Amino acid sequence: MLYIKCPYCGYRSQNEFAYGGDATIKRPELNKEVTDKEWDNFVYLRKSPRGKHLELWHHVSGCRQWIKVLRDTNTHEIFNTYKSEDKVET
Ligand SMILES: [Zn+2]
Questions:
Q1: Where are the extended beta strands (E) located within 15-51?
Q2: Ligand 1: centre distance to CA 59 (Å)
Q3: How many angstroms separate the alpha carbon of residue 55 from the centre of ligand 1?
């Protein structure tokens, strides 16, 4: 069981959160022409990294905020958590 420190609520059980995917994915710029391939890559292609990874989590059963979690996907160690708008260098 993971305990995730929500930046708004403090430490909570993993059961209160839903995993939201890779937090490093950048959406194509609004109103910019993109090829079908670029759009497919944005929508479907994801890496499955082993090690330190910045992830999005949704505090579904708490404050309902999206947060970023810097977590080791191998050991599940959580290094830090951030508000969704925070810029994080990985
Ligand atoms: Zn929260």
A1: 18-22
A2: 5
A3: 15
Task: Specify whether the CB–CB gap between 6 and 62 falls below 8 A.
Answer: yes
- Going from the Cα of 69 to the center of ligand 1, the distance in angstroms, rounded, reads 12
Residue 84 to residue 90: CA distance in whole angstroms:
15
The pTM of the full predicted model, rounded to 2 decimals, is: 0.87
40 CA to centre of ligand 1 in angstroms: 32
Q: Give me ligand 1 centre to Cα 65, in Å.
A: 6
Domains detected in the chain: 1-25+48-90 (3.30.2270.10)
Q: 74 alpha carbon to ligand 1 midpoint, in Å? A: 24
Within 13 Å of residue 26, how many CA atoms lie on the same side as its CB? 4
Encoded tokens for 13: 């059980």
Which two structure tokens, joined as six digits, stand for 15? 């059961």
Task: Give the model confidence (pLDDT) of 7-32 as tens digits.
Answer: 999 999 999 999 999 999 989 999 99
